[in-house]
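User: Could you go from structure to sequence for me? I need the amino acid at each position, not a summary. Structure tokens:
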């Protein structure tokens, strides 16, 4: 055996083998790069779809608007109807009560005790005498006596709330809103605020006529609520205080209208109901 010849053959074989290995490696590298590229893109694309899908899948909770249902002048002959409807519908409301109405009869005292037991009813102060029996000008002309009338109501009913509604006047004195509808009441309104009261007026009223019957139909009231929000006609955007009066709902037709009204607002699923203590500028949260 020629060692040189064998050596030559061996060297040549090693050279060829190395050349093949380099060529194969280069080809493999090329293929790997070529085919891995679309794969990477696909992965990236897939990832971005997943993020988009996740964004889409996450339910976006629509912020609801808030309605504060308030009833003035109770307790009286309509308060029991209001109580039944509110308990059936399970919506929170605020009752602005008149001190002397609580003591007006045993029936009124009893119904007052009942609403005080229910978490759905928040009790607030509507003065003791309802402005000396609707003598509004006289009542508001002397700020001190107006303040004393609210203090008398709070003391006699042991109210801890400072929330009030002024009889016959749409007055606001909260941390966020200050407004007086009839300017001759301004001094009394300021005095009430200086004495620590928070006066909450209303954005919309469900009126009644001299026969104590509702003026607006249920549909009209729903439209007025929708429109007040849509046109931003409330004191604070997305918050609406609605004024109603207990005595009207002693009538069965009108109490049916109240229940229908609440039902329809609930069905819309765009409104929340709260008590006035949660209103911005009144709430201590
Ligand atoms: Zn009133």
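Assistant: Here is the amino acid at each position, in order:
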């Amino acid at each position: 055996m020629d060692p040189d010849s064998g050596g030559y053959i061996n060297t040549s074989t090693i050279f060829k083998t190395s050349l093949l290995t380099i060529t194969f490696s280069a080809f493999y590298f090329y293929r790997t790069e070529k085919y891995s590229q679309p794969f990477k893109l696909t992965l990236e694309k897939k990832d971005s779809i997943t993020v988009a899908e996740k964004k889409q899948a996450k339910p976006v909770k629509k912020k609801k608007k808030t309605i504060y249902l308030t009833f003035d002048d109770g307790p009286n002959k309509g308060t029991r109807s209001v109580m039944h409807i509110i308990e059936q519908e399970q919506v929170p409301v605020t009752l602005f009560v008149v001190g002397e109405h609580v003591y007006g009869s045993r029936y009124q005292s009893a119904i007052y005790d009942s609403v005080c037991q229910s978490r759905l009813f928040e009790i607030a102060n509507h003065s003791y005498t309802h402005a000396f029996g609707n003598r509004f000008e006289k009542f508001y002309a002397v700020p001190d006596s107006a303040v004393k009338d609210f203090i008398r109501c709070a003391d006699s009913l042991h109210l801890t709330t400072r929330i009030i509604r002024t009889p016959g006047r749409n007055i606001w004195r909260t941390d966020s809103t200050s407004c007086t509808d009839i300017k001759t009441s301004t001094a009394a309104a300021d005095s009430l605020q200086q004495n620590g009261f928070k006066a909450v007026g209303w954005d919309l009223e469900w009126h009644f006529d001299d026969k104590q019957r509702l003026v607006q139909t249920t549909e009209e009231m729903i439209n007025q609520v929708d429109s007040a929000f849509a046109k931003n006609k409330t004191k604070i955007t997305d918050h609406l205080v609605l004024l109603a009066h207990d005595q009207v709902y002693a009538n069965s037709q009108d109490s049916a209208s109240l229940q229908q009204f609440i039902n329809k607002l609930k069905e819309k699923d765009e409104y929340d109901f709260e008590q006035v203590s949660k209103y911005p500028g009144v709430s201590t949260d």
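One structural detail worth keeping in mind: The chain is about 50% helix and 15% strand.
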